[in-house]
Write a sequence for this structure.
């Protein structure tokens, strides 16, 4: 029997994410944003991971 996803589990994940994370938004030139997305896809790296690492390097200065 296949296990089904429920709305409850999604609601729980959403509550956890809202408590734990904050969104950071950046406005980038379209060309730069597109190149960033393509490079992430090519390397199999998540966009959020790239941003997280950049912020961590910046804070370590």
């Amino acid at each position: 029997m296949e296990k089904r996803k429920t709305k409850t589990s999604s609601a729980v994940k959403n509550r956890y994410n809202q408590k734990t994370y904050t969104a950071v938004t950046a406005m980038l030139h379209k060309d730069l944003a597109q190149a960033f997305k393509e490079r992430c896809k090519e390397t199999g790296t998540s966009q959020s991971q790239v941003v997280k690492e950049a912020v961590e390097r910046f804070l370590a200065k």
About this structure: DSSP finds three helices and no strands in the chain. Helices lie at 7-20, 30-43, 47-60. The mean pLDDT is 92. Residues 7-60 form a domain with the Arc Repressor Mutant fold (CATH 1.10.1220).
